Amino acid sequence: MKRLGWILVLVLAASPAWAVKKVTVQQLKDLLVSMQQSKKTDAEEADQLKETELTEELTGSTANSLKSYLPGPLTSVQIEILKEQSAFLAPPTADLPGTPAPDAATQQAILAKAADFASRVYVQNPHLSVTKTMLRFEDHILKTDSIGLQNNTSILSPVQLVDNQVDQVETDKGEEQVAVSRAKTKWGSNGRLSEGEPGTNLGVILLDASSTGKIGWLRWQMIDGKQIAVFSFAVEKEKSRLEVSYCCFPNTSTATKVGGSSPMMTVGSILSVSTWEPFKKVVGYHGEFFINPNTGLVVRVITRAEMKPTDLVFREDRRIDYGPVSVAGKAYLLPRDSITAMEAVPNGDNNNATCTIRHTFFLASYQNYKLAGAR
Fold this sequence. Notes:
Elements: H1 3-13, E1 21-23, H2 25-37, H3 42-49, E2 52-54, H4 60-65, H5 73-85, H6 104-121, E3 128-138, E4 141-143, E5 155-156, E6 160-172, E7 175-176, H7 187-190, H8 202-212, E8 215-223, E9 226-235, E10 243-256, E11 270-282, E12 285-291, E13 298-305, E14 313-327, E15 330-344, E16 358-371
Parallel strand pairs: 1-2
Antiparallel strand pairs: 3-6, 3-16, 4-5, 6-7, 8-9, 9-12, 10-11, 12-13, 13-14, 14-15, 15-16
Helix pairs in contact: 3-5, 6-8
């Protein structure tokens, strides 16, 4: 890896090609009301929302309450994108319960219930199959100028929906298996990376976090009409079992032409040779647990991988929402939805890259759980 060149690429790509305005959820609502009163078209409103970034979580219920201000499908898509991009943030303070934080003993009791559930119950989930629908949002190249590294001025658009894929996947003991039909695809062949390996399962994450002692109270939060206890946690790399894995990146080297009959290349010319290699790395991570204080059920977990800025994949944030599911007459807590935010350097160490950084969001929903092999 050409470290100096890669650092320069990061510097060049640090600022987006469009001006981003950061707003709260209330300011977003005010903006929509203002545009409605000004009789902006659907396309005009959508373009303005593309230049907007939220500083708070836009929850599903709040997003639904904004529908009356949306003039058409283009604006609706941008609101959905803003909702998913903000999924890793805390909701507005006004939406949080005013209940005081529990005392230390109560906090430990909540965590003990969650650890017991994850280690004794969740990991005993049976071998299941489920239909997984994956939406991929990502930015794309608008214009490039690749005359050497220092003049590389690739311009990327805001993220947009680019793919919709449905797979039949399996889970065993609470851990998702990679879908057989989801082949690991090289960037050069289709312009984007594979989704990456499924995240570490809930039981492992709780055990990793418990072993560090770095779990602390964060806040109360309302989810699906219930008051949920939110705890922060951190896991050092030495105690981590979280692996970030994506396929595939070009590993470029040079060679000198020594023979052959190609009229385009003379003997002695420098050739670029690329092999495609997956990115796999065990990393430290931090995040949040969202726990029902009465039952110990974990209804949501957020993990943020601690990547180096020079890694080919230098961001992976993942949120998984869990819910009760009945399978063959028995109740289980299973993944219901997940969101993964990933940022990567798709062209690996190739300094002639036409796209320096790619921002991708994977949105997955899980339906129709059943015992594996059942019809």
